[in-house]
Amino acid sequence: MSTLINITSLSWKIQQKNILHNISFNVRKGEVIGIIGPNGAGKTSLLRCLTNQANILANSNISGSVQLKNRDLKQYSAKEIAQHFALVMQKNDSIFALSVQDVMNMGLLPHKSFFALDNDHDKAQIALALDKVGLRHELHSHFNQLSGGEQQRVLIARALVQASQILILDEPTNHLDVYYQHQVLQLVSKLHITVIMTVHDFNLASLYCQRLLLLNKGELISDGTPEEVLAPKQLSKIFGLPCQQNIDAITGATQVSFYLEENRLEENRLEENGLVENKIIDDKLAAPIDTQCASGSLSE
Ligand SMILES: Nc1ncnc2c1ncn2[C@@H]1O[C@H](COP(=O)(O)OP(=O)(O)OP(=O)(O)O)[C@@H](O)[C@H]1O
């Protein structure tokens, strides 16, 4: 796979705080990448830099470089960026007053002039994209009268008609019920384009992303396969909770579970005390621990 994006030593500092610190990685064509990490880790900020939103890379607090196809992203015009990147971000105040059809038309704009819109091919593309997210019947509805989950699905459909090479999504499963969480992630992961998305749910990220980037306090802590990045020791340390990694019996995907010690079933504690190999990781010991320590790992 050829390299599409190169991020080198990207740092962003605001009032002594490192929003992003010395981040370097490459994105290869066709990869589906999930960016994970705790609240405030810098996930959305990284997406904003990757797409030079509002010309953010011109900000003097930001250093390092982002290159798209071996050319500095700062040299791309806004239209060129829109031709390469389809965005599904969290804040969409500017489109609230529009109809679903108007929102969908916006997805076609990067590739044509406003006056060239609305031919039969465009209409068919829009209908197909809305079909994929189960919302064809809402074409003439007002965007602001849809539920949060329906709005999110319209934005994903708009990104589909934009037909860009790179799809950027900030928390695409926000507001979605469990059916549409899977539906939408399955859809975007099978588009055969490059996808970079922030995901809070590690198990969904693991199931639908081939590569994960773990951020914490603005730093890139880990970059690799879900199995590598969802390492219990690492996650336990960052989130301050015991963590266990399993292979899902149905999907075969790496999964993790977190829990408070007080919520563990008593019978599990007894079983592990005697017989079962323990995979719980103690934050303080930063190593697999034996069962005698396990029940007190949070309180000690
Ligand atoms: N323009 C800004 N001015 C000041 N601080 C900012 C700005 N943008 C982001 N931050 C700070 O940078 C940090 C990272 O924010 P960001 O939104 O990127 O985190 P995140 O990982 O996406 O978080 P979440 O999971 O909560 O959405 C936060 O502490 C945030 O307050």
UniProtKB/TrEMBL annotation:
UniProt keyword terms in alphabetical order: ATP-binding, Nucleotide-binding
Domain ABC transporter positions: 5-242
Keyword Nucleus in annotation: no
Molecular function, one GO term: ATP binding
CDD domains xref list: ABC_Iron-Siderophores_B12_Hemin (cd03214)
InterPro entries on file: AAA+_ATPase (IPR003593), ABC_transporter-like_ATP-bd (IPR003439), ABC_transporter-like_CS (IPR017871), P-loop_NTPase (IPR027417)
PROSITE patterns assigned to the protein according to its UniProt record, in alphabetical order: ABC_TRANSPORTER_1, ABC_TRANSPORTER_2
PANTHER family: ABC TRANSPORTER ATP-BINDING PROTEIN, HEMIN IMPORT ATP-BINDING PROTEIN HMUV
Protein name listed in UniProt: ABC transporter ATP-binding protein
